Amino acid sequence: MRPSDPAAPGSGGLVDRHGRVATDLRVSLTDRCNLRCTYCMPPEGLDWLPKVEVLTDEEIIRLVRIGVEQLGIREVRFTGGEPLLRPGLPGIVAAATALRPRPEVSLTTNAIGLSRMAPALAAAGLDRINVSLDTLDRARFKQHTHRDRLPDVLAGLQAAKDAGLTPVKVNAVLLRGINEDDALPLLEYCLEHGYELRFIEQMPLDAHHAWTRSEMVTAEDILGRLTATHTLVPDVEDRGAAPAERWLVDDTGLTVGIIASVTRSFCGACDRTRLTADGQIRNCLFAREESDLRTALRNGASDAELADRWRIATLSKLPGHGIDDPSFLQPSRPMSAIGG
Ligand code: SAM
Ligand code: SF4
Prior knowledge:
The chain has a single domain, classed as Alpha-Beta Barrel (TIM Barrel), CATH 3.20.20. A hairpin with a 5-residue loop joins strand 10 and strand 11. The chain has 340 residues and is of the alpha/beta class. The strands form 2 sheets. The chain has a 12-stranded mixed β-sheet. It starts with 13 loop residues before the first strand and ends with a helix. It is globular. Helices cover 29% and strands 16% of the residues. Iron/sulfur cluster binds at residues 33, 35-37, 40-41, 80-82, 110, 132, 335-336.
């Protein structure tokens, strides 16, 4: 690298060689989960990270602080695995919201335990929450997640709303032959409760590598289902780097979104960087390489050294995920271990 390279380490933000700037940090707090969604984890037999390899609360807070204070991170989303399984979550959220400049702090969760935790998270300053919910049918939920926990999820959603963590967003992934026909019931439920629904196209990030392009439910399929009974008008608000395309539904004033990560990829506008629960920086969900901050951190690296490693890890971000390339290889870690 030339010293005049705009992305040279030593100062500035997280810039890659294609000119994108990462300002949105996804932090996986754990690879563990209390569900086993079929598109994410196998029903059994996935080894957890050894505890000693998982970052402590203090280590996570330090790296998030470096991101915000030195690298221009403006948004921090905590995810996993299931982030509510991390006992120190309210303290981690409070530490993130105390940083200056204050980042937007959000959480992606399956909502199990949220009915108990929502007030503490709101008190810690959490700005927003996304709850994953793929079906409203209890038997189907149990079959799809391998756990009978639908009532806990619905109670968690209500608790988030009651705690003022609004707008509550609901993430749904549709699978062909499993829950495609949940699209409309999910939309009706979210309209009724004032939740903002977003469908996410299934990506090849399952632990058992069973995803196929021909079997996935596409954004076009989803739109076809929704417009059969609802009028959707494109939301003209500037999308920026947001991955969801949004539509206003009927005259409700509420929107539904679709994140078409596969069929309408938005890699050119990507502003994300990721920290795994074991302290690896990933510059893309689909990256095949990671950059180890944990070892450097535990060996006494300074904040400036860690920031430089993070900048260097960002430089090599590929222009796109390449799912449609014949040479595409799925990352070895599943979504639950990367942090969705
Ligand atoms: N456990 C939390 C949850 O389910 O919300 C947080 C982690 S989960 C990995 C984050 C998001 O990734 C969820 O909305 C989930 O539906 C989504 N996800 C997991 N595997 C996926 C896949 N193969 N394709 C698309 N989305 C996926
Ligand atoms: Fe767990 Fe979330 Fe993966 Fe489902 S999507 S298995 S809730 S990490």
